[in-house]
Design goal:
2 copies of one chain form a homodimer. Helices cover 40% and strands 18% of the residues of chain A. With 425 residues, the first copy, chain A, is an alpha/beta fold. The first copy, chain A, folds into 2 domains: 114 residues, 2-Layer Sandwich (Alpha-Beta Plaits), CATH 3.30.70.150; 280 residues, Ribulose bisphosphate carboxylase, large subunit, C-terminal domain (TIM Barrel), CATH 3.20.20.110. The first copy, chain A, has an 8-stranded parallel beta barrel with strand order 6-7-8-9-10-12-13-14, surrounded by 7 helices. In chain A, strands 1, 2, 3, 4, 5 and 11 form a 6-stranded mixed beta sheet that branches. The two termini of chain A are 27 Å apart. Chains A and B meet through α3, α4, α8, α9 and α10 of A and α3, α4, α8, α9 and α10 of B.
C-alpha cells in the first residue's frame, strides 16, 4: 500500500513549527479530476466558499479569510479502467484570524466536510503544522517522559509494563491480587484494559482501592512505586471523580480512551489532571486503516499532545494488528518530535499488542531511544517460569538490544531470556 | 458499492430496543479467513480475551463477562486474485454488567481495537442496540421535533433554513445585516457555518449581539422568531460561556460539531443546554466514506441522540457530496425511529448541501414526513429575484411535494418557484 510511504517521514528532527501565522495541513488527495481544481475546491469548502458565487464574497474578504493552496506535489498516478487516478500531496493553509486557536474549531477546519466532496476519490490528512499561538491556551503534557521517569524511578531504559488480563471479568480483589503478584515480579507499569472502567463487575473505586493497597504496600517494603494507569474514561463528572479517587489513593497515572471521550473530554482532563495521562487510541482503526480516507497518526497525535496526552499508544512491531512496522516506528518518532520551540509537548510512545522478548532489538534500532513504555501481556504472565521471569526476560531483551548484543548470545547467561526465546517464537 | 445495500434498512418501524440486558452491535465483516473464527476473535478482543491462554481466564469468568457471537449471516462473497473474500454480517453482544451504561465506555467496547485486527480485511459497524438502562443517565434531545416547531412556530411543513455564507470572513455587523435581510425574506432557520466560531474576524459575542438584534427586532415587528443556530463548538468553558450569551440574548438554538467536541463535550452540552442543539457532523467523511472500514450512520447517530442532539445533519439528495441518495434517506429515517419505548430520542434530520427547489418531491416521497430542516444556501441568496423569492420558492416546492403536484405544474401560478426552476437545474 504505497500511501503509507508518502506519509512516513522517519526523520526526528524536521522543523515542527510554522514560521508564519497560518495553520497548515497536508493531504494525500486522489481524484480523477484536475488536481489543481480539486485543491481549490477543498480550500473553498473549508473557508469562504459556497457552490454559488455570492455578491458578499468580495476579493478583500477572500484575502483576509480564505484558505490558500500552498503547494501541490504530484505523486505516482494509478491507471485504472475508468481513466487515470491522480495522486497528489496538497498543502492548504488558513489564517489564524479566521479560525482562532481553539482545537475543536481547528478540527472542523482541517478535517471537516472536505472528506465528503464528490470531486475526490480519496483524501487522507497526513500532517498538521500549527503556529505558535496554539501553544498558549492548552497545557500540553504536564509530565511527559521526564515526569513519568521521575514517578516510576526508571531511568535510561524503557519502562516495562503490562496490562490487566483478562480484560474484563476479574473482581476488584482478583485485580488487586494480580497487581500484587506483578509488583513482586518487578514490573514498572500496569494498565487497566480499555474495556474496564466502572462496570458493576468491577467498580472503579473498589478496584482502585484494591490495586493501590497492593502498590503502596510494595512501595513501602521495597521503595519501588509501580505506576498504574487507571482507566478514568467516562462522562466528565465520572472522569473528575475517578481522578480524585486515584490521586487520593496516591496513584500516579490515569488512562483515557481518546476516541471515547473526544477532544473536549481530553482538554478538560488535561487541565485538571495531577498525574500523567496515559492516552489510549482504541478505535484508531476506523480512522486510519482505509488506504484512501482518514487520518495519519502524524497529524492526529499533535492535537492530543497539545490537549495533554503524556503517553500515546503506537501499537508495536510484529503485533497482532494490521499496522505495518514502519508505520509503528514513524508514529513513535513523531511522538518524540517537538511541536513548538517553547513547548515541545513530547509524549512517551507506548508499544503494545503481542509484544514479547523478540521485538526490542528492531524497536531500539529503529527508534534510537529508550524513551518508551513497552507493554506486554502474555510475555509477562505467560512466561514458562512465571511473571517474575517474564519481567526479567523483557529487561534482558532490552539490555541486549541497547548493548547491541544479539538476543541468542545474550541469552546464554540470562536464563529468563533463554526460556522466553524458547516459549515465544 | 454493495456494502451500502446491506446497511440500509429503510423501514422506520423496526423494534429499536433490545429485549435483554445485553448490548448488541452489528458489523459487516470482510475476511479471507474463516468468518466464524474471526467473529470469535472479535468477541474475545472486545471482552475477556488475550492472545495467550491465561490461568485466570476461567469458564465462569467467561460466562459472566465475555462477549458473545449472537449471529453470523453470510453475504455475497467477493472472489479476488488471492482467494475468496468472505463477507458476513456479524452480531456481537455484551452483558451490561461488564460494560456499564456509560456512553464513552460503550464506544471502547463496540468500536475499539477490533478494527485493527489483522484477521480481517474490512469492518464496518452498521447498527447498535442498547438495553433500556442506557436511557437513564443521559438526557436525550430535550426539544426534538416538537420543541423546535414550538420555538419556530412552524408546523405541518419542513422548517426552511439557510446558512451564513461566505462561511468565514464577514464581520459581526455584516452578519447581522445578512440576518436582517434573511428575516425579511421569510426564513425560518439560519445557522452559522461550522467554520465560524469565535475567530478574531468575527468574535462570538459581537456576532451573537448583532444577529439577535436583527432577529429580535423582526420578531417584535412580525411575531415571527427566526431560529439561529449559533456555533458554540469549542472547549468546555467556551461552550458554556457561548451558550450563556445565546440564552441571555433570547436566542433559541446552539450548534456543535460532534467530531470536534467529542462525546464528553456533547454529553456536557446536552446536560446544560436550555435551547435545542443543532448537531453538525462535519468530519463524517473520514468515519464513513471508506467502503470497507468505519461507521454507518445508523449506529453512529444513536450515541449522539442519547447524548442530546436535537437536530442531526444527514446531507441531502443530489448533494455536492459523494453520499448516495438512498443512504441519505436511510439516515434521515433512522433519526426519526424511536430508540427506547420510554425515551424515543427522536432527532430532527437536517437536509443540506446543494439543496434547491429540485429535491423536495423525492425527499418527501422517500421520507413520508415533513419533520425535517431543509437548509439551502445558494438557493436562497442566489435566487434571481433575491432572497425573499428564494425562500418563497422553497416553500412552494415543499407545498407542491406534499400535495403530490409536479413542480412544473405547480410553478405555473407560483412565480418564485418558476424562476427558481429556470435558475437551478
Amino acid at each position: 500500500m504505497h500511501h503509507h510511504d508518502d506519509e512516513i517521514d522517519t526523520a526526528r528532527t524536521q522543523p515542527a513549527e510554522v514560521r508564519t501565522d497560518r495553520i497548515e495541513a497536508d493531504y494525500i488527495l486522489e481524484t480523477r479530476h484536475d488536481p489543481h481544481q480539486v485543491a481549490m475546491v477543498m480550500a473553498g469548502e473549508q473557508s469562504s466558499g459556497t457552490f454559488v458565487a455570492l455578491p458578499t464574497e468580495t476579493e478583500e474578504l477572500r484575502e483576509r479569510a480564505a484558505a490558500r493552496v500552498e503547494s501541490l506535489v504530484p505523486l505516482e498516478d494509478t491507471p485504472s479502467e475508468s481513466g487515470v487516478m491522480h495522486r497528489v500531496k496538497v498543502t492548504l493553509s488558513w489564517p489564524v484570524e479566521s479560525v482562532d486557536t481553539s482545537l475543536p474549531n481547528l478540527m472542523a477546519t482541517v478535517a471537516g466536510n472536505l472528506f465528503e466532496l464528490n470531486h475526490l476519490s480519496g483524501l487522507r490528512i497526513v500532517d498538521l503544522r500549527l503556529p505558535s499561538p496554539f501553544a498558549v491556551p492548552y497545557p500540553g503534557p504536564k509530565f511527559s517522559i521526564e515526569g513519568t521517569r521521575r514517578l516510576t524511578g526508571v531511568h535510561d531504559r524503557p519502562i516495562i509494563g503490562t496490562i490487566i488480563k483478562p480484560s474484563v471479568g476479574l473482581t476488584p480483589e482478583e485485580t488487586g491480587d494480580l497487581v500484587r503478584e506483578l509488583c513482586q515480579a518487578g514490573i514498572d507499569f500496569i494498565k487497566d484494559d480499555e474495556l474496564q472502567a466502572d462496570a458493576p463487575l468491577s467498580r472503579f473505586e473498589e478496584r482502585a482501592q484494591s490495586v493501590m493497597r497492593a502498590i503502596n504496600d510494595h512501595a513501602e517494603r521495597t521503595g519501588k512505586k509501580v505506576m498504574y494507569a487507571f482507566n478514568v474514561t467516562g462522562d466528565l463528572d465520572q472522569m473528575r471523580r475517578r481522578h480524585e479517587i486515584v490521586v487520593g489513593l496516591e496513584g500516579t497515572c490515569v488512562m483515557a480512551s481518546l476516541n471515547s471521550v473526544g477532544l473536549v473530554g481530553m482538554i478538560e482532563l488535561g487541565r485538571f489532571a495531577e498525574v500523567p495521562i496515559h492516552a489510549h487510541r482504541n478505535g484508531w482503526g476506523y480512522l486510519s486503516r482505509c488506504p484512501t480516507f482518514g487520518w495519519s497518526y502524524k497529524a492526529w497525535q499533535k492535537v492530543w499532545r497539545l490537549a495533554g496526552a503524556d503517553h500515546l499508544h503506537v501499537n508495536g512491531l510484529d503485533s497482532k494488528f494490521a499496522e505495518e512496522n514502519e508505520s509503528v516506528i514513524a508514529s513513535a518518532l513523531t511522538c518524540l518530535t517537538p511541536m513548538f520551540a517553547t513547548k515541545p509537548c513530547i509524549a512517551m510512545p507506548v508499544f503494545s499488542s503481542g509484544q514479547t522478548v523478540r521485538q526490542p532489538p528492531a524497536t531500539y534500532a529503529a527508534l534510537g531511544s529508550p524513551d518508551l513504555i513497552y507493554a506486554a501481556g502474555g510475555a509477562v504472565m505467560g512466561h514458562p517460569d512465571g511473571p517474575m521471569a517474564g519481567v526479567a526476560s523483557l529487561r534482558d531483551a532490552w539490555d541486549a538490544a541497547m548493548a547491541g548484543i544479539p538476543l541468542d548470545a545474550y541469552a546464554v547467561d540470562h536464563a529468563p531470556l533463554k526460556r522466553a526465546l524458547e516459549a515465544f517464537d
